[in-house]
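Appendix B, example 12.
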Amino acid sequence: MVPGFMIAYLQGGNGRFWAAGLFVLAALTDLLDGYLARKLNQITDFGKLADPAADKLMQLSALLCLCITGRIRVWILLIYAVKEILQVIGGLRLLNIRKYVVYSKWSGKIATTLLFVVITVIIVTTEQQLSLQRATWLMVICLIATVIAFFDYVSMYINIRNARHSKN
């Protein structure tokens, strides 16, 4: 859905509503997929990797579009991009060296949900309805939740690494 989202959003005008619809649809299908995987006991290591990767690709694409159109500041996108790169490196390190697939934590789910809601609000509003300053404050709230989640994952990474080191 990422290319469709980006094309719709960057068209401007009513395209942003189509983009918002695709963005919300991506979030809803993500929820449904997770629910069905748990309900049907179909949780896989591939799903643990692919599902968050798809979420992050959609989020970063949306943030990029919002930057391109001047709805959010570039530094917000940069912070998210650096955070995602660091988490991918840590997750791949645990997978490659420790054969451990990182699972999602509630702090991450809350931060992701908050980000999806705020991005959707920014997409469907105009600059007259939601100024750049107010959009920035909403994104700062998301960033605070994201940083808390990030340190939650860093703590998990350190605990897993230390537990595996003590066994060797």
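The chain is about 85% helix and 0% strand. The longest helix spans residues 132-167.
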